Amino acid sequence: MRYALVxxxxxxxxxxxxxxxxxxxxxxxxxxxxQRIHHWAHRGMRSCDPWWEPETPWHRSWxxxxxxxxxxxxxxxxxxxxxxxxxxxxxxxxxxxxxSHIRLQERQAREAFYSDMVWIVxxxxxTRDLPRFEEGRRSLQVSPWxxxxxxxxxxxxxxxxxxxxxxxxxFDFAGTEAIDPRAPAERRLLWGLxxxxxxxxxxxxxxxxxxxxxxxxxxxxxxxxxKIVTILGERFRAARARAMLEARRYPxxxxxxxxxxxxxxxxxxxx
Length: 271
Ligand SMILES: [Zn+2]
Description:
The chain is α+β, with helices and mostly antiparallel strands. The chain is built from 6 helices and 14 strands.
């Protein structure tokens, strides 16, 4: 973890410092080696939060975009279950940064525990995720809103294990690399798959990193997912109803027959 309590104060790990975990109150050791980023670890190496994953520079660079008191926030539900959210905004929206593989059950448990959350997924961990998206992005269809797309084939864009998430999932295909403003949009921007479907179509929003950070500061939600999916669903339904009406207005009277292939007319000799 980035922070532990030292004399009731949140402190970053420094050599020789001793602290306690803000989650469970157990002693923590400052790990300040060369191999990994400086962090705090529980004595027994296992975190008190089974959902905690070892932090990477990618986690840290994302968390650093937010005020220190929004980072690593202990959240407890009515049963006493406790977890440490990567970031929780002043609007109580939880941002979870996911680098490693997550089992389906754990993902669902986390979505239920932090009912109001978004995922930000490191799209650079698996080598096939970016090529899949580069290819699948061609199937995205524009919508009336700039930066909002739909696709009937989300599995062609995103990893299968995130498709039915109940929270918006933003894929970060750039990782910790500095982002060149001329880099292709796949890597320059974040691509968010919204929960739910609009008449069978997945809804994808695209936004710059700084816009996600700004939205987290300013608004209770990053994007109004439910509203966007509902309105697009209504549009798809209306378009289908219009198409059916048109079909009824101009009924096809005769059954369609295959046209005969054109053949040069045989010359018939007349005498
Ligand atoms: Zn702990």
